[in-house]
Amino acid sequence: MGPSRRSLLLSPPLSLLLRSLVLLSLSSRGQAVQAENVTVFEGGKAQISCRLQNYDGSIVVIQNPRRQTLFFNGTRALKDDRFQMVLFTQRLVQITLTNVSVSDEGGYFCQLYTDDTHHQVATLTVIVPPEVPAIEAKTQAVEGGEVELTCLSPRSKPPATLRWIRDRREIPGVVSQQDNGKTVSVSNTIRIPVERRDNGAAISCEASHPALEGQKKVRHYRLDVHFAPTVKINPPQGILREGDSLTLTCSVSGNPLPRNIQWSRVNDTLPERAETSGNTLLMSRLSQSHNGTYLCQAHNNYGRAADHYTLLVYDPGAVVETHSAVPYAVVGGVLALLVFTIICVLIVTIWCSVRQKGSYLTHEASGLDEHGDVQEAFLNGNDTSQGKKEYLL
Ligand SMILES: *[C@@H]1O[C@H](CO)[C@@H](O)[C@H](O)[C@H]1NC(C)=O
Ligand SMILES: *[C@@H]1O[C@H](CO)[C@@H](O)[C@H](O)[C@H]1NC(C)=O
Ligand SMILES: *[C@@H]1O[C@H](CO)[C@@H](O)[C@H](O)[C@H]1NC(C)=O
Ligand SMILES: *[C@@H]1O[C@H](CO)[C@@H](O)[C@H](O)[C@H]1NC(C)=O
Ligand SMILES: *[C@@H]1O[C@H](CO)[C@@H](O)[C@H](O)[C@H]1NC(C)=O
User: Fold this and answer.
1) Ligand 5 atom at minimum distance from 315 CA
2) Does 225 sit in the ligand 2 pocket, CB within 6 Å?
3) Residue 164, Cβ neighbours under 10 Å: how many?
4) How does this protein lie in the membrane (predicted)?
5) Superfamily of segment(s) 134-223
6) Are the C-beta atoms of 147 and 191 separated by less than 8 Å?
7) Which residue lies with its CA nearest to atom 12 of ligand 1?
8) For the domain 228-314, what is the CATH code?
9) Domain limits of the chain?
10) Which ligand approaches the C-alpha of residue 42 most closely?
11) CA-wise closest residue to 221 among 134, 113, 116, 154
């Protein structure tokens, strides 16, 4: 909107009229005008009211903060269609301003033309609530390092309050404000250490503002932590024999996820019939020439990783059986035998100890008899054994 459009449109005859009105107003005392302050959101609609007391038909002038006349007694003076006169009664003059911008802010003058010195000012205050803030990462987050995150609310009035939240707790940051004329740009910068486990962690920045009435404008963010890859080959179950087919799968992690996975055989080339597709290596109709140590390797900008699998292809048939299934049976049999032996030994030991105790007791009891024997034998004469024999018989 150019300055020409906003210029005051007072035609010469009107100026003449004004002069006569000034004279007229001198005779009209007791009139008064009152203005009310207005607060409105940017882009909204403001209603500016001038209350009249004892209005006697004088000219009412409404001016903008730059003291350009908007309405001259109900007649539009400034070419700005956003202003509309909606009411002009003996008590109230009302104009509206649509699509309010911060540059419309300031004092609007309501005055009776007769009384230039006693104008009333309606102060228009424009509020700019913040938008959802933006989050910027200054540097790429790498495991073991720190990440600097800035939350930015570029425009608000009055300034918004920015808070970093992680796991419902506030992370204190460095807040700075920059005046951009009528509005303020606010930022809050944090530095946090990051590990591999923080990749994908949720963090958010909340903007609060009086105009939001307790609501918050929240920007969610997921930490993107770069880390070196890890690889792991999932080994096949059981043994492999000639003619079997084998699919090796390599589990790869890393951020960024390694794009290429290299399969190789240590000190050798991959078998001719091996097919690689991404993280899988397929070998059909295995033969012993496939024996070897296979490597899965992956890398990204942050490092490289490898895992290996040693493949042994066995002859089909009994030889394989004795090497695989039978040892388990043998081990199981040996174990069972061992347990059986231990139980037997235990039983025998217990039985023997019980028996030994019993025999000791009988022996002790018979000891007395023997003693008696000896005494009797001694009394009976020289042939003790005979005496004993006799006694026992
Ligand atoms: C209107 O706003 C102005 C400027 O902020 C202030 O000085 C004045 O007291 C306010 N008037 C009323 C009636 O609130
Ligand atoms: C100003 O406008 C009001 C309302 O339309 C009218 O009553 C009054 O006569 C006007 N005054 C002049 C001087 O034209
Ligand atoms: C409101 O004003 C802004 C500039 O202040 C302008 O860009 C926008 O188009 C306007 N909207 C309407 C609906 O007039
Ligand atoms: C590869 O060759 C080197 C040197 O000849 C040897 O030391 C190494 O053990 C071999 N590795 C395998 C897995 O065969
Ligand atoms: C492959 O491995 C099996 C099992 O250890 C072995 O019996 C066979 O001799 C090996 N073959 C070759 C060609 O190395």
Assistant:
1) 7
2) no
3) 21
4) Single-pass type I membrane protein
5) Immunoglobulins (2.60.40.10)
6) yes
7) 37
8) 2.60.40.10
9) 3-127, 134-223, 228-314, 325-393
10) 3
11) 134
